[in-house]
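Tokens as discussed.
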């Protein structure tokens, strides 16, 4: 029959296609360490999704094994390059432009975030947008946010203590920390413009988004990736409506800004900038994505590291007690928070030793020579590892040592090239002061208001990806309140 005659040719064609795919992969990888052969089309995507920590550890080991600090692999029909070397990572960050590298935030980010997101911008358009964002993170703005953050953090810590008190059991705080951060982000970014129903929908949609981040990019009904993509659209619509409401309020000129979108719309009106509410909504979602899971990771590692370093915990408590008491009838102000230098050093060391967003994916828009020996080919997905960079250069990098960030040592300046948790270059995190402030305030309050201890289990401190890194046990702790005024019912 015709089918029987055609079958050998079809098999031969398939074998040829697969052979050409392997040859293309090996040609791009050249002498770099990495798998010699990869599974057709999907490459090592299954192992990446199934066990991200192991997959990236293997890639890091490959890259570390060569003086170039680079390794190769293959994911969903795309050649990928893993960057261990801080020097090469800086070259990637410094060359984000149309003919070099395109920041993508996620290997399939454009499908999730949309084409016109802040992270995909270049040149003057990108500079203008970042300039308009700058007033969102001035000392005046951060002062306003501190009061909002304080109230949310205290409310959630009280809830956690109540949950732990039931049956005197330990509780995992990853999801509670994520809920704290989501409410903080909503309150700080667009607080007055979201009612309770909108907040509930917001939380549901963000959960869809979170699940889709780690799923295979199957954009079909019923799959997690499709649910995430649709959820992002709804979240952007909600944030766009908040931007419109804020603009109307700021146009009146009768009220001071009370949240981030107010500061931003006030600046947009001053500059007479042209924008659509949905564009603003998309950029707000970018802020939300950047702050949400990264902050959750940092909060969890802060609790973990304070528990395992009681001397650091005691120094934090002493510093906070010298500046603020929970018995006072007032929150921690922005001015007092700025004086907590040691607590800030603790926050920075948490971010260094456990950089929450371990990798910053880019796509090579053209061939790019990282040195005289290797050219990253056009179309490759490139993963600079800011996590690996944090363990390079610093003295005793495996040691949790907040003193390294105190004024007499200032290792974040001495080893600036290796402190890449907030990125570098034109796309360096614009909200890093806000992120450090939030972590710093949480550490100050948690250390002061709560007595806590880990519920240790085998492997509890191993790294899990969700999608940022967290302790494998979701940071399970026992806790009870240390003060009565803020938690009178406990």
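Sequence:
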């Amino acid at each position: 029959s015709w089918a029987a005659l055609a079958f050998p040719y079809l098999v031969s064609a398939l074998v040829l296609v697969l052979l050409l795919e392997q040859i293309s992969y090996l040609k791009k990888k050249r002498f770099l360490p990495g798998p010699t052969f990869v599974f057709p089309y999907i490459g090592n995507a299954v192992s990446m999704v199934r066990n991200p920590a192991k997959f990236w550890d293997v890639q890091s080991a490959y890259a570390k094994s060569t003086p170039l600090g680079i390794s190769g692999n293959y994911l969903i029909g795309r050649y990928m390059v893993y960057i261990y070397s801080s020097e090469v990572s800086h070259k990637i960050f410094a060359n984000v432009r149309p003919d070099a590298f395109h920041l993508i935030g996620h290997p399939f980010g454009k499908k999730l975030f949309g084409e016109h997101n802040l992270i995909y911008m270049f040149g003057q358009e990108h500079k203008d947008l970042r300039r308009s964002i700058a007033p969102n993170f001035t000392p005046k703005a951060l002062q306003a946010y501190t009061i909002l953050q304080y109230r949310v953090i205290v409310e959630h810590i009280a809830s956690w203590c109540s949950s732990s008190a039931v049956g005197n059991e330990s509780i995992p705080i990853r999801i509670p920390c994520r809920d704290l951060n989501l409410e903080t982000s909503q309150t700080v970014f667009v607080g007055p413009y979201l009612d309770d129903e909108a907040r509930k929908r917001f939380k549901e949609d963000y959960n869809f988004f979170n699940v889709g981040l780690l799923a295979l990019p199957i954009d079909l009904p019923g799959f997690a990736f499709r649910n995430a993509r649709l959820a992002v659209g709804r979240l952007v619509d909600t944030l766009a409506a908040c931007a419109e409401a804020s603009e109307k309020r700021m146009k009146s000129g009768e009220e001071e800004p009370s949240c981030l979108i107010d500061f931003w719309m006030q600046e947009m009106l001053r500059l007479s900038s042209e924008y659509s509410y949905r564009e603003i909504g998309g950029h707000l979602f970018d802020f939300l994505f950047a702050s949400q899971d990264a902050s959750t990771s940092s909060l969890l590692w802060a609790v973990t590291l304070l528990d395992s370093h009681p001397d650091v915990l005691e120094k934090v408590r002493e510093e906070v007690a010298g500046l603020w008491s929970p018995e006072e009838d007032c929150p921690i102000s922005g001015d007092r928070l700025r004086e907590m230098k040691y607590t800030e050093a603790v926050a920075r060391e948490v971010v260094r030793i456990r950089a929450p967003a371990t990798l910053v994916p880019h796509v090579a828009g053209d061939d790019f020579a990282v040195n005289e020996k290797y050219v990253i080919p056009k179309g490759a997905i490139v993963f600079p590892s800011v996590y690996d960079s944090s363990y390079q250069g610093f003295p005793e990098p495996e040691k949790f040592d907040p003193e390294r960030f105190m004024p007499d040592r200032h290792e974040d300046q001495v080893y600036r090239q290796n402190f890449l948790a907030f990125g570098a270059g034109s796309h360096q995190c614009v909200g890093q002061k806000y992120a450090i402030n939030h972590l710093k305030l949480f550490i100050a309050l948690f250390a002061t208001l709560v007595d806590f201890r880990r519920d240790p289990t085998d492997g509890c401190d191993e790294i899990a990806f969700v999608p940022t890194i967290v302790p494998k046990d979701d940071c399970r702790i026992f806790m009870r309140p240390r003060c009565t005024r803020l938690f009178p019912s406990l």
